[in-house]
Known about the structure:
Blueprint: E1 2-13, E2 18-20, E3 25-26, E4 30-47, E5 54-57, E6 60-61, H1 64-81, E7 86-94, H2 103-118, H3 125-133, H4 139-142, E8 147-151, E9 160-165, E10 173-177, H5 188-198, H6 202-211, H7 213-221, H8 225-244, H9 255-269, E11 274-278, E12 284-288, H10 293-304, E13 309-312, E14 319-320
Parallel strand pairs: 5-7
Antiparallel strand pairs: 1-4, 1-14, 2-3, 4-7, 4-8, 5-6, 8-9, 10-12, 10-13, 11-12
Helix pairs in contact: 1-2, 2-3, 6-8, 7-8, 9-10
Amino acid sequence: MITARAHTNIAFLKYWGKKDSNLILPYNDSISLTLNKFYTDTSVEFTSSMKEDEILVDNQPLTGSGLKRAKRVLELIRQKSGIKASAVVHSTNHVPTTAGLASSASAFAALAAAGAKAANLHLTDKELSILARHGSGSASRSIFGGFVQWHAGHDDQSSYAQSIQSPVNWDINLITALVDTAQKKVSSTNGMQAVVETSPFFPAWVKSAQADIEPMKSAILNKNLAKLGAIAENNAMRMHATTFGAVPNFTYFQPQTLAIIEAVRNIRKQGVECYSTVDAGPNVKIICASSDNDLIMEKLEPIMGHNQLLVCKPGPGVTYR
Length: 321
């Protein structure tokens, strides 16, 4: 039995929309930061004593689309390794599931890593990234630590993630404001599909998102927090604008989400470099320097409460335990 740990990542430049749902190929590249606080531990063992795969998440049998995607990753591992045996998979999520905190990213990165190693496959990080992508697109990025770029590609082998900067040796972190950790009313998969098929804003989103890639990489390599934050904030708002144009329209924002976004703008007007980003969920991440954490959290506490604010730093890539 092999156990792997993978951490969640937060996209500063978003993945939103698939041009190939079977291969999970995105319309545009994306850039993320792997975090230290949220992670998934997954153990995998292949055994001939089982007639079918046993997949438990937090001691509960996996069901629905998650089960289908996990079996897809396991089947790819069996094809690559020649193993015929069923798998026993035990996974523990140290992150709220389906709440827009990238739990699927850490989950499928950990599954791909543990499964490949349990099958005695010696995959490169690039190959692991491709394998993890078949479970969840954002999982391709959680193979790596620090700042990561996922290349959209045009087929199975050209769509993979790679490191931009790891370890991250400058002062940047995220304050995560946990607005709501309940399951989302609109899943990321369904939300993406609705936007791609019905939102007139989607083509403009793809064009602007791809144009953000090189400026964002430059900001990272030059350790320019202000430039990075401004690009990330604008990118997130443009992504969420596509949901308002969908038919029927929807949003992941809640009243507290908007209140925090506005508070971050007001704090920035006071001379503090801080920027908001929101994935497919109501929770807000504030990009800032650790030296400003206390001030920002003090300003946000009237909206959130201290126990709903969590500081995250850059985290590592996949490790084995």
